[in-house]
Design a protein that fits this description.
26% strand, 9 strands, 132 residues, globular, alpha+beta
């Protein structure tokens, strides 16, 4: 798994990656093999970059976890937020793309507070996003 941690962007085992309380697997609803290959290459090109403690989506020399998705999923029109004079993308901005009326992602699996969610994933995600 490629992830952006405080130590920088790195490749870790699935076991290491899953040491969290909240997690969702999102999958493109429609994606060709060529698009998938391009996304994987873009993701791997981020390995070794420093963590972006400024959370600035407009720079690409340093990135955070949600920017990995932003950078590698270039066909999506992402919503960003302006915070302290910088444009940022949050995990919530990514999750929103799975619950929109014409969502680009399907929710394959959802874990909340360390427990697998068996209810309707889309409705559960909507509730999580509305409670923010």
């Amino acid at each position: 798994m490629v992830e952006a941690l405080r130590d920088g962007v790195q490749i870790n085992s699935l076991e290491h990656f899953l040491n969290i309380d909240d997690f969702s697997i999102l999958r493109y609803k429609e994606e060709t093999n060529d698009e998938k290959a391009k996304r994987i290459i873009l993701t791997l090109r981020q390995v070794g970059k420093e963590y972006d403690f400024n959370f600035d989506v407009e720079t690409s020399d340093k990135i955070v976890c949600s920017e990995l998705v932003y950078i590698s999923c270039t066909s999506i029109n992402w919503q960003t937020d302006k915070l302290l004079g910088r444009h940022t993308i949050s995990p919530d901005n990514v999750a929103i793309k799975s619950v929109e009326e014409r969502s680009v992602f399907s929710i394959i699996n959802l874990i909340h507070d360390g427990k697998i969610v068996h209810a309707n994933h889309k409705e559960f995600m909507k509730k999580l996003l509305s409670s923010i």
